[in-house]
Amino acid sequence: DSSYGIHFSINTPTSYFIFGDMNKNEAYQSSDVKVNDISMLSGVQIDYLSAGNDLDLAFSIPDGFTYINGSQSTTSTTIRVKRIGTSCSTAICKQVIIRNTGQISIQ
Predict the structure, then answer these.
(1) Is 12 exposed, middle or buried (0-12, 13-18, 19+ CB in 10 A)?
(2) Which of 80, 81, 84, 78 is nearest to 100 (CA)?
(3) 103 contacts: CB under 8 Å, gap ≥ 6
(4) Which position among 8, 10, 16, 94 has the lowest Cβ density within 10 Å, counted as fewest Cβ atoms?
């Protein structure tokens, strides 16, 4: 069994990457394999991660479990995105909510 995940960091707010979880801890570590770097849409950046400075979402194959920062017990986490150069008080910000069931919603 293996897992793949997505790593977000507040330190790289205009990109994120997909990783292969080689050590099976359901969170990104430098020993894991970066599969693909992805840039956010032009003019958009991550403004806030409810999990802290870094967020790892891992999806266990074939079990179908979703892990948030290596834990199944966390019920949900939020990523807030905004337009670059604006604050959420003056721009339309979106909340991306990821639940441990794998459901993703945008508010």
Answers:
(1) middle
(2) 78
(3) none
(4) 94
The two three-digit tokens of residue 41, written as one number: 């849409």
Nearest to 54 by CA among 25, 29, 31: 29
Peptide bond into 13 cis (omega under 30): no
Secondary structure (H, E, C), the chain: CEEEEEEEECCCCCEEEEEECCCCCCCCCCCCEEEEEEECCCCEEEEEECCCCEEEEEEEECCCCEEECCECCCCEEEEEEEECCCCCCCCCCEEEEEECCCCEEEC
Give first-to-last CA distance, the chain, whole Å.
Answer: 33
pLDDT tens for 3-49 read 899 999 999 999 999 999 999 899 999 999 999 999 999 999 999 99
Whole-prediction pTM value?
0.91
